[in-house]
Specification:
Radius of gyration of chain A: 28 Å
CATH topology of the largest domain in chain A: Aldehyde Oxidoreductase, domain 4
Largest sheet of chain B: 5 strands, mixed
Strand content of chain A: 15-25%
Helix content of chain B: 25-40%
Distance between the termini of chain B: 53 Å
Distance between the termini of chain A: 66 Å
Strand content of chain B: 15-25%
Largest interface: A-B, 58 and 61 residues
Radius of gyration of chain B: 16 Å
Largest sheet of chain A: 7 strands, mixed
CATH topology of the largest domain in chain B: Ubiquitin-like (UB roll)
Number of domains of chain B: 2
Shape of chain B: globular
Strand order of the largest sheet of chain A: 3-5-1-12-9-10-11
Number of helices of chain A: 21
Structural class of chain B: alpha+beta
Oligomer: heterodimer
CATH class of the largest domain in chain A: Alpha Beta
Strand order of the largest sheet of chain B: 2-1-5-3-4
Number of strands of chain A: 28
CATH class of the largest domain in chain B: Alpha Beta
Structural class of chain A: alpha+beta
CATH superfamily of the largest domain in chain B: Beta-grasp domain
CATH architecture of the largest domain in chain A: 2-Layer Sandwich
Number of helices of chain B: 5
Number of strands of chain B: 5
Chain lengths: ~775, ~160
């Protein structure tokens, strides 16, 4: 392994992405303009379940400016079904059509698409399509959907249960009999909306001449899009170019290829004109996949000294009405990560993924791991309450020892490295924990409801090896990079990850700059275009640096080795006599040297060819992670609850995290603060709500509460560094960590504030109304 | 086709005459007619701020202003804030220096909203900054580095 001198890596370098974005010069999908463009609008189901009696498109088709109106019947089996990645033998499943095929399964399901010369005409005409639906009873509550006599989302399936995976453990049963105490909890991890600022947007362009389809789509994994469009349209993938241009946030919900993606490709091919669609915010809340949506039932066996012996858990995951790309498998990582940072002897678990007549669920910043962290971190606080110990002491008592890594948990995860005490110690020191608790005691004496919550958590990032975690998934988890050195010595990096705010154009330029001693301005990072980038996987699962960066390191190393051989040839010295530093190859112990730029030029000139070497200076590399990384952290939140209104003020938030080696601390801080705020959003305000009949109640920003700037105090951040050896960078991943730690941390703080009143749980979101009602109920119970 | 009405709008110092449907939103006018795609659409309901521009020097959300309401008026968009890459507005510098953006989608609106604040109050406190950008949602940054960016711009203007 080559270690490049870190001139740039490790520093807070300003982003290369920003100059265009701060001037409004980025090109997002809706900014794409093509000659002959048409505009699409969707007609969506107003009913959560029902049979389509008829669809009358006459008035819409006659509307001025309308080019075409299509329904399922028009597709004539030429395109679809909707792409799915999660396949498993024995799962209850059905194909999902791109447009409703005689029945509707959730509110917001596309029923027809109207194509017009202008966006306004398309929207106008969409309102003229008459869809006559015979409603039938919808099933909305996930637990009700599991009942044998529940209405079925798919009448042709045996039940609404898509997957049921029991993992019994006799050892856990035994420990439950031996334990000093047990407790049980029911925890809700409510459904939330990913809410990227840019919703879904698609521009599809079939060119009849070359027989080529180009799709711009606001997506996190354009190479998947290419493959899936090919399958859906039954045309070779070599005729498809997928571009994820500037993408305005994703958070997991832009991993899937949605039904609208292949559908609009089919429309463009049929019309031989480009077609563009950008969803409205209401469409986004209706028709972009939701996240979370878990009911967790947990039993805990523990000793009077706070030692947790065993867990028995049940996860019921709301799948919604159809399988999105990865949805059914998300809940599996809740079981995998159930032990958190703790050395728990035995875990028994059962996981269900269940259909309901609601929008599909999918990965959302953390995807199964936040649910696990929420469970175990709430459990630790309740164990502390039951044993009369401090929550921090209970955590310390259960931590996996720093010398015990790699550590295999009772749920089967293999943790790479960790030092949980170190990170917690730093957090405690930053906070002044004892003083904070003393101040809390004084506040309580004054009758104030002040709470301090702690979360010490770990999560899993940089998933690999391919197929290792979910053998039936249709995806690899490797990543690719190409490093192409021009004759000038300037460098183009092509990465298979598809960043959309994470900043890899900067982080990867830092790495290339260090490798070759060229300036940051002499490196360009290309991503998100399947015609430019070698095959790749994408950006999700906190894998950009840990997997994509590792692939880049491999490619840089390959190029560097070749440059060294070329330099050795021209310096007339053996390769092992060549020293390299900061862009210069020197014959050891002499002043004979060549710069990297000279070598780059030589690599491209035939008259100075090196025997045995191909011309050029370029390498492709693919990194297949041998294992996963487990970043971790210790967070603390202090809140004060107003007993009169139930309003919660976040007074303090401190996060000390460990994500291994850091490429750019400024980018890492951005990911962390953003993640913490997103997690607090779930803890306090955000909730996708359907009524009992299956109608979405949270379809606008008036009804769905996204965190805003004034909700938060200034956060205090620090980090410790515990490298990993599963990749050559030692980096663990950072994208989802904040979201995973903050949600239980805040809820623990709120429950801590309310515990003197006898309250032991508040379900998320801890809205003022809910908190106020809990306070009233507790008062009347006393 | 629907009837059209003439509008004349001065945008970033240039005057544009167009025929538009009366219902045309200012944001669509700017994006579709004038190709000013730095103005983003986030909610079509005045609640997210991605479409914030200045109308006669005051920040407005252009998704709920009609193009005809801007007739004869002056509009400034993010594209009009700096003449070129070498002469960025202090807020643009601040956002770059302090990592005030990630995906960049909220950024033009956020900068235009912050400009209103600094126009009115050149030395805002952190609380005042947080209050001033309350109508603008950012889903990536968690706001703290946006606050720092605005503070950076205020400090730079104060030092100048």
């Amino acid at each position: 392994m080559v270690t490049f001198r870190p001139n740039s890596v490790g520093k807070a370098i300003k982003r290369r992405e920003d100059p265009r974005l701060i001037r409004g010069l980025g090109t997002y999908t809706d900014d794409v303009k093509l000659p002959g463009m048409t505009y699409a609008a969707f007609v969506r189901s107003d009913f959560p379940a029902g049979a389509i009696r008829s669809i009358d498109t006459t008035a819409a088709a006659d509307h001025p400016g309308v080019v075409a109106v299509y329904t399922y019947a028009d597709m004539d089996g030429q395109v679809g079904p909707s792409p799915v990645g999660a396949e498993m033998p024995g799962m209850g499943k059905a194909d999902h059509p791109l447009l409703a095929d005689g029945r509707v399964l959730h509110v917001g399901q596309p029923v027809a698409v109207v194509v017009a010369e202008t966006p306004y005409a398309a929207r106008d005409a969409a309102g003229l399509v008459e869809v006559d639906i015979e409603p039938r009873e919808a099933v909305v509550d996930v637990e009700a959907a599991m009942a044998p006599d529940a209405p079925k989302v798919y009448e042709e399936l045996d039940s609404n249960i898509c997957i049921q995976i029991p993992v019994p453990n006799p050892e856990a049963d035994k420990l439950f009999e031996q334990a000093d105490q047990t407790l049980s909890m029911r925890l809700l991890n409510q459904r939330v909306a990913p809410f990227p600022m840019e919703g879904r947007a698609i521009c599809a362009h079939w060119e009849e001449g070359p027989g080529k389809l180009t799709i711009w789509t606001s997506n996190q994994a354009p190479h998947f899009v290419k493959q899936q469009i090919a399958m859906c349209l039954r045309i070779p993938e070599i005729r498809i170019r997928a571009i994820a241009p500037e993408v305005g946030g994703g958070f997991g919900a832009k991993i899937p290829t949605y039904p609208e993606d292949p559908l609009l490709c089919w429309v463009s091919r049929k019309l031989r004109r480009p077609v563009k669609w950008s969803e409205t915010r209401t469409e986004n809340l209706l028709g972009m996949t939701h996240g979370r949506g878990h009911v967790e039932k947990i039993e805990v066996a523990f000793q009077n000294d706070g030692r947790v012996l065993a867990l028995k858990g049940q996860t019921i995951s709301e799948l919604g009405a159809w399988r999105s790309f990865y949805g059914p498998f998300i809940a599996l990582s809740t079981h995998t990560m159930s032990c958190g940072c703790y050395d728990i002897k035995a875990v028994a678990w059962e996981t269900f993924a269940v259909y309901t007549n609601t929008m599909a669920t999918e990965a959302y910043r953390g995807a199964g791991r936040p649910e696990a962290a929420y469970i175990i971190e709430r459990v630790m606080d309740e164990v502390a309450a039951a044993t009369g110990l401090d929550p921090v002491a209970v955590r310390r008592r259960n931590f996996v020892d720093k010398d015990a890594f790699p550590h295999t948990t009772a749920s089967g995860a293999v943790y790479d490295s960790g030092d949980y005490e170190k990170t917690l110690d730093r957090m405690i020191e930053l906070v002044g924990y004892d003083d904070a608790r003393e101040a809390q005691r004084q506040a309580r004496d004054d009758g104030r409801l002040v709470g301090i919550g702690v979360a010490a958590f770990t999560e899993v990032c940089g998933i690999g090896p391919s197929g290792g975690t979910a053998p039936h998934q249709r995806m690899g988890t490797w990543e690719s990079a190409t490093v192409r050195v021009e004759p000038s010595g300037n460098v183009t990096v092509y990465t298979g990850v598809s960043p959309h705010g994470q900043g890899q154009e900067t982080a990867f330029a830092q790495m290339a700059s260090d490798a070759f001693g060229v300036g940051l301005d002499d490196v360009v990072v290309v991503h998100g275009d399947t015609d430019q980038v070698q095959h790749g996987v994408g950006t999700f699962g906190s894998r950009g640096i840990a997997v994509g960066g590792a692939a880049l390191h491999m490619a840089l190393t390959k190029v560097h080795a070749k440059a060294t051989r070329i330099a050795a040839h021209h310096l007339d010295a053996p390769v092992d006599q060549i020293d390299y530093e900061d862009g210069e190859f020197t014959v050891s112990g002499t002043d004979r040297k060549l710069t990297f730029r000279q070598v780059a030029e030589m690599a491209h000139l035939w008259n100075v060819a090196v025997p045995g070497e191909e011309p050029g200076l370029e390498a492709v590399a693919r990194f297949e992670p041998p294992g996963t990384t487990f970043p971790f952290g210790a967070h603390l939140c202090q809140v004060e609850v107003d007993p009169e209104s139930g309003q919660i003020e976040i007074q303090r938030y401190v996060a000390v995290d460990d994500f291994g080696v850091v490429i750019n601390p400024m980018l890492a801080d951005g990911q962390r603060i953003g993640g913490v705020v997103q997690g607090i959003g779930q803890a306090m305000w955000e909730e996708v709500q359907y009524d009992d009949g299956g109608q979405l109640l949270s379809g606008t920003l008036m009804d769905y509460a996204v965190p805003r700037a004034k909700h938060f105090p200034r956060m205090v951040l620090d980090n410790t560094v515990t490298p990993t050896d599963v990749n050559p960078l030692g980096a663990k991943g950072i994208g989802e960590l904040g979201t995973i730690g903050s949600t239980p941390c805040v809820v623990n703080a709120i429950v801590d504030a309310l515990r003197p009143l006898g309250i032991t749980n508040i379900d998320m979101p801890a809205k003022p109304e809910r908190v106020w009602q809990a306070i009233q109920a507790a008062a009347s119970a006393q | 086709m629907p009837r059209s009405v003439p509008v004349t709008v001065t945008v970033n110092g240039s005057t544009h005459e167009r025929e538009v449907e009366p219902r045309t939103l200012l944001v669509h006018f700017l994006r579709e007619e004038l190709n000013l795609t730095g103005v983003h659409i986030g909610c079509e309901s005045t609640l997210c701020g991605a479409c914030t521009v200045h109308l006669n020097g005051r920040a407005v959300k252009s998704c709920t202003v009609l193009a005809v309401q801007a007739d004869g008026q002056e509009v400034t968009t993010i594209e009009g804030l700096a003449p070129d890459a070498d002469n960025l507005h202090p807020l643009q510098v601040g956002f770059w220096e302090k990592h005030g953006l990630q995906c960049g989608y909220c950024t033009p609106g956020m900068i235009m909203a912050a400009k209103q604040l600094l126009d009115d109050n050149p030395n805002p406190t952190e609380a005042e900054i947080r209050e001033a950008i309350d109508g603008n949602i950012c889903r990536c940054t968690g706001y703290q580095q946006i606050v720092d960016a605005v503070q950076h711009a205020a400090d730079a203007a104060g030092a100048a």
